[in-house]
Amino acid sequence: MIRRISSKWAKTIALQRDKQVSGFLPATAKMTGGTLKRMLNRYGMVYVKPVHGSYGNGVMRVEKGRDGYRYQAGRKVARYASFEALYDALRKETRKKAYLVQRGIHLLKHRGNRFDLRVMTQYSPKKRWETTGIIGRAAAKGKIVTNYHNGGTVHSAEALLKPHIRDVDAKLKSLGRLGVHTGRALRKSFPGISEIGLDIAMDKTLKPWILEVNTSPDPYIFLKHPNRAVFRKIRRYQKFYGR
Ligand SMILES: Nc1ncnc2c1ncn2[C@@H]1O[C@H](COP(=O)(O)OP(=O)(O)OP(=O)(O)O)[C@@H](O)[C@H]1O
Ligand SMILES: [Mg+2]
């Protein structure tokens, strides 16, 4: 069975229930004026994104500073003196669509560009969750999302992490385990799923954060993986489950 869960909110709720995973989820709420204001006061920087979105479309970064508020969409930045003015403007961007507000993570950078990691975890033919690949994505200059459709570029995770981490291998292994825990947790709520792609942000303390979990992850990004066996295995597992 192939199953794709589109609601980022439904997936968040399912993962918040799991003790092995919940500590890696940035605080997330359905966006209202109240939740946005509260989370800006608490975290200073948040991301807002459509509940049903993809390719980084509609994702915005909102900040509260000493002299007011600002938000960024694409490369466009707008500033406001009051929360009310900010929220009015945001509502025009989001129209009537449902949005989430999520604690913003200050991503590590590669040559000045933000990057995150994509962890591919699949239900194997032996019926066990297995992390089959990890790869990195860097945002285009000045952009707030790393998605390929927004000019992002693909890099090996090792190359991105090396300047920041002493034991890259150990870090990748622990991300692999996080993928497995996430697969198990999600399958409890959504029994049909057989693969997930985790968007992992790393902050400067090197703590990983799960920004979102895709249930029909793109395998082709792994064509850029330095080890060709990685892509082959990903496709083999996908075909086993009819993808
Ligand atoms: N809380 C956050 N803090 C920092 N960066 C974030 C946060 N949420 C999202 N981002 C950035 O925006 C990108 C897009 O966000 P997200 O993955 O949630 O939506 P999407 O890409 O539109 O969905 P999909 O991956 O299904 O296409 C992330 O890959 C990441 O680079
Ligand atoms: Mg994503």
Structure explained in plain terms:
The strands form two sheets. A six-stranded antiparallel β-sheet has the order 1-6-2-3-4-5, sandwiched between helices. It has seven helices and twelve strands. Helices cover 31% and strands 30% of the residues. It has 243 residues and is an alpha+beta fold. It has two domains: 18-25 and 107-240, 2-Layer Sandwich (D-amino Acid Aminotransferase, Chain A, domain 1), CATH 3.30.470.20; 28-103, Dna Ligase, domain 1. The structure holds adenosine-5'-triphosphate and magnesium ion (MG). This is YheC/YheD family protein.
**Per CATH, which architecture of the largest domain?**
2-Layer Sandwich
Overall, the morphology is: globular
Bound molecules: adenosine-5'-triphosphate, magnesium ion
Helix fraction, binned, reads 25-40%
CATH class bucket of the largest domain: Alpha Beta
Q: Report the average pLDDT across residues.
A: 96
CATH fold assignment of the largest domain: D-amino Acid Aminotransferase, Chain A, domain 1
Radius of gyration: 18 Å
Along the chain, the helix and strand elements come as HHEHEEEEHEEEEEHHEEH
**Count of all domains:** 2
Total of helices: 7
Query: End-to-end span in angstroms?
Result: 10 Å
InterPro entries: YheC/D (IPR026838)
Protein name: YheC/YheD family protein
Pfam families: ATPgrasp_YheCD
